[in-house]
Structures are given as structure tokens and as C-alpha cells.
């Protein structure tokens, strides 16, 4: 290993090859916190050429590489626990080009999501893919997991805004996929193949992202809902009457944790469910339609109470009730499920899911919330303080296997927006057929013939 490290330090300046235990722990894991990090080193390239050199070095030395962005994933996709070299993109953080005609920004993979959003705003435009980790997640990681977030109902996933991507394959070759074209009917669209590939096919080094017009006067409401059927009725009503940009929900348990961590209660009424609606208000008629929709929902018994933001500050406070959930649960080291079903199947799936959890988790607190407008639910099982972590993970893994059976019945997915990584790998065959998994393995062998890129993630080669 000392010879391997010495050769790595000949490749990059010594200050960009990290081996201190604190650095290895920091860069060797993501937000799952369930896997002990044990990388050999951390490499910090600053150019595409250096990434190419790292890949070729890894092939020669037979060393695995784990790509690293903001490490905000929740599936263990960025974990290095078997002596790999972590390739952190944090120094590749330049905005390379803005094209006002095509309305695109070309950036390096290490650009923070919020930095891209701000750069778009400075040009009078909008990058709409958004989530709570916007301040630390990186564009390369967003693409590698095809990140979704809180605006999918209106704007779709990262893949939908990816105009072009530059990737270094497992042989050190550079691929420039699509080159920002709107129309390109020249065979397989490799650009979209890398979206969601979790770093197993290539290292994303640059991306060209499409921008759009900013939302017009976004408004936020939070409402209390008596039951899940009412929530779906309210969703159908608001979607029909308003230009929605987000439709999020959370339970009373989730709200209680946020309030305990400094959140502000939106109103005095209490309910088992709450919904946050964001919509554009381009004119007075839309504002009136929103009030009329709330009144109709209240008359029908779908809505118990509600509040409309009266300022940007209050809008941020209302959004915190939803976006602050993950942070408020962090100290409990939750086991997370990130699942999806078709929107029309949400009520039936939730009924089966709740019955499963009531039976199998009688002594665990389960907090769930999510993007009801796109059928994505986040489930956090909280570890009892007296329970050992390994026992907790084992028990949650057992129940997750049962959850997969419920998802199968409802045509759902075990991973909606955080990828498969290590955490969900044991359950991949409950969602994908053997033929699909074998095709994925074959694709990996084409792009990564030496098996050095993020091995063990998604599936075992």
C-alpha cells in the first residue's frame, strides 16, 4: 500500500492526496452512517485530464475508485469501505459557460446545486431541480443519482434538465454525450444512461444544464388534513385549479420533531396529516382561485385549517416545516426507506404499508413524509436509544424485505430518488427482473471493463 500511495502522490500534488484518519472518515461515507468508512486515500483532482490520469493509474494498480460529490445520498452509494481511493470532485467547481440563446449553464461536476441555482438567477433564469441538501450536494452527484426533490411535480428530475454530460469511463476515455443539442436522433442517448448510474459506469466531470423561466410570484400554503383520502382529494382539486410547483405532505409525528427543533407551528389546529402547496400567482385571479380552492376543501371536510404565507420570511418558515424533517431526525440515526408508487396507488399502498409497520414495528417510531404529487414517500424508522445499531439495521432490513413485497403488489420502486448503493442492493431483484439486472451488469462491463468504478454498488459484478 505504501508503494501504491507513493505512485498516487506522483500523480497529484501531495496536498491533494489525503490520508489523515479524519479525512478518510469524512470523505469515505455519505449520510447513511451505517457503513464504516475505510478508504485508502482521498484524491482531489482539478481537471478532466487529472481524472483521466487517476482512472488509468487505478487500472494499472488494480485499485477501485469511489466518486464523491456532496455525499448527501442516503443509500451508501458514496461509501468507501474496502481500501478504495475516493475521487472527490470538490475542487472541480467552476462554472464554465453560459449560453443565453440556448439558456444553458455548463459546469464542472463539483459545482454545488445552490451555486448553480444562484448563477441561473443572476442571468434572470431558473434551475428548478431543488431539495433540502441544495447547499451541499453537487451537480455530478445529482446526475449520478438522477436526483428529484420537491419540484418534480412541475419540473421533473435532473435527467430532464441534462442537455449534455462529459464522462470519464473506466478505461480513462472521455465521452461527450449529446453536446447540449435539443434534437439528436443519432442512436442511443448515452447522456441519459449516465443519469442514475451511481458512478458505476463513469466519472461525471462536466455537465450542461438547461434553464427555464423563473416561477411567477410563488405562493405557499400549509393545511391540516384529517385523513389520507382527504389528502388525495385535496391534491386532485389543487392540481386542477392552480399551477402547482410543489405538493408535499408530512405527518403529525414529523411535524412534532421539527417543532422540537425550533420550527414554528403554523396554526393551532392539529391533524394526523399536513400538506404544503406551492403554486405560481401570476395574477389576482390565481390568488382568488387558491382561496376558493381552500374554501371548497374546507366545505368538503378535506381541510381542517390552513395558512397562506404573507411574506418571503413566512414562506421560508412554512417550507422549513417540510424541509427541516431530515435534520430534526438525524440524531436518532434513522433507517430510511425512499419508495415510490404511481400517484393513483398512494392511498392503497399506504394502507398496506401502515398495516405492515403496525405489525412489524410495534416498538419503533416510524416517521413518514414525502412528495405526494409524484408518489414518492420517505420513511424514517427511528432507532430506540437502548438498541445496538447492528441489531437495529438487521431488524429494519428484515422489514424492508416485506415492504418490497408490498411495493411489488402496487407496482412500486424501493428507490425513488436516492439510488440503490449498498443499502438497497439486497432488494434490487424485487423490483428489477433477472434479465434487467444482467443487462445492467453487461453495460457496466462495457464502460468499466476492469471493474474499478464504485464496485459493489447497485449490484455485485
TrEMBL record:
GO terms for molecular function: FAD binding; oxidoreductase activity. InterPro entries: FAD-bd_oxidored_4_C (IPR004113), FAD-bd_PCMH (IPR016166), FAD-bd_PCMH-like_sf (IPR036318), FAD-bd_PCMH_sub1 (IPR016167), FAD-bd_PCMH_sub2 (IPR016169), FAD-linked_Oxase-like_C (IPR016164), FAD-oxidored/transferase_4 (IPR051264), Oxid_FAD_bind_N (IPR006094). It holds the Pfam family FAD_binding_4. One of its GO terms (biological process) is respiratory electron transport chain. Signal peptide: none annotated. Residues 35-214 form the FAD-binding PCMH-type domain. Its cofactor is FAD. The keyword Flavoprotein applies. Keywords: FAD, Flavoprotein, Oxidoreductase. Belongs to the FAD-binding oxidoreductase/transferase type 4 family. PANTHER family: D-2-HYDROXYGLUTARATE DEHYDROGENASE, MITOCHONDRIAL (PTHR43716). This is FAD-linked oxidase. It comes from Oleiagrimonas soli.
Amino acid at each position: 500500500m505504501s508503494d501504491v500511495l507513493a505512485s498516487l502522490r506522483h500523480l497529484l500534488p501531495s496536498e491533494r492526496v489525503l490520508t489523515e484518519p479524519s479525512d478518510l472518515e469524512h470523505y469515505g461515507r455519505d449520510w447513511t452512517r451505517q457503513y464504516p468508512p475505510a478508504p485508502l486515500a482521498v484524491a482531489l483532482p482539478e481537471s478532466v485530464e487529472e481524472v483521466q490520469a487517476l482512472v488509468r493509474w487505478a487500472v494499472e494498480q488494480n485499485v477501485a475508485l469511489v466518486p464523491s460529490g456532496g455525499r448527501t445520498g442516503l443509500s451508501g452509494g458514496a461509501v468507501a469501505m474496502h481500501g478504495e481511493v475516493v475521487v472527490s470532485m470538490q475542487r472541480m467547481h467552476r462554472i464554465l459557460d453560459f449560453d443565453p440563446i440556448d439558456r444553458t449553464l455548463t459546469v464542472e461536476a463539483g459545482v454545488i446545486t445552490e451555486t448553480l441555482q444562484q448563477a441561473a438567477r443572476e442571468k434572470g433564469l431558473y434551475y428548478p431541480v431543488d431539495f433540502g441538501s441544495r447547499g451541499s450536494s453537487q451537480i455530478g452527484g445529482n446526475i449520478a443519482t438522477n436526483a428529484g426533490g420537491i419540484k418534480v411535480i412541475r419540473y421533473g428530475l435532473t435527467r430532464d434538465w441534462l442537455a449534455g454530460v462529459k464522462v470519464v469511463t473506466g478505461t480513462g476515455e472521455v465521452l461527450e454525450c449529446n453536446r447540449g443539442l435539443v434534437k439528436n436522433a443519432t442512436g442511443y442517448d448515452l447522456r441519459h444512461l449516465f443519469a442514475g448510474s451511481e458512478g458505476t459506469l463513469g466519472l461525471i466531470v462536466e455537465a450542461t444544464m438547461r434553464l427555464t423561466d423563473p416561477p411567477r410570484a410563488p405562493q405557499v400554503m400549509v393545511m391540516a388534513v384529517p385523513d389520507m383520502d382527504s389528502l388525495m382529494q385535496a391534491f386532485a382539486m389543487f392540481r386542477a385549479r392552480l399551477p402547482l410547483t410543489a405538493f408535499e405532505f408530512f405527518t403529525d409525528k414529523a411535524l412534532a420533531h421539527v417543532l422540537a427543533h425550533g420550527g414554528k407551528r403554523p396554526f393551532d389546529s392539529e391533524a394526523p396529516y399536513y400538506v404544503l402547496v406551492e403554486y405560481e400567482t401570476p395574477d389576482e385571479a390565481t390568488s382568488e382561485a387558491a382561496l376558493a380552492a381552500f374554501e371548497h376543501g374546507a366545505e368538503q371536510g378535506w381541510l381542517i385549517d390552513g395558512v397562506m404565507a404573507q411574506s418571503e420570511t413566512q414562506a421560508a418558515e412554512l417550507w422549513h416545516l417540510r424541509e427541516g424533517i431530515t435534520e430534526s431526525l438525524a440524531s436518532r440515526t434513522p433507517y430510511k426507506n425512499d419508495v415510490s408508487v404511481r400517484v393513483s396507488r398512494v392511498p392503497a399502498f399506504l394502507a398496506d404499508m401502515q398495516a405492515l409497520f403496525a405489525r412489524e414495528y410495534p416498538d419503533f417510531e416510524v416517521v413518514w413524509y414525502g412528495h405526494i404529487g409524484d408518489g414518492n414517500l420517505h420513511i424514517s424508522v427511528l432507532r430506540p436509544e437502548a438498541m445496538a445499531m447492528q441489531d437495529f439495521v438487521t431488524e429494519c432490513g428484515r422489514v424492508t424485505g416485506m415492504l418490497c413485497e408490498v411495493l411489488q403488489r402496487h407496482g412500486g420502486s424501493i428507490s425513488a430518488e436516492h439510488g440503490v448503493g449498498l443499502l438497497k442492493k439486497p432488494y434490487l431483484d424485487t423490483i428489477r427482473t433477472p434479465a434487467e439486472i444482467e443487462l445492467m451488469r453487461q453495460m457496466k462491463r462495457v464502460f468499466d471493463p476492469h471493474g474499478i468504478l464504485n464496485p459493489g454498488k447497485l449490484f455485485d459484478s
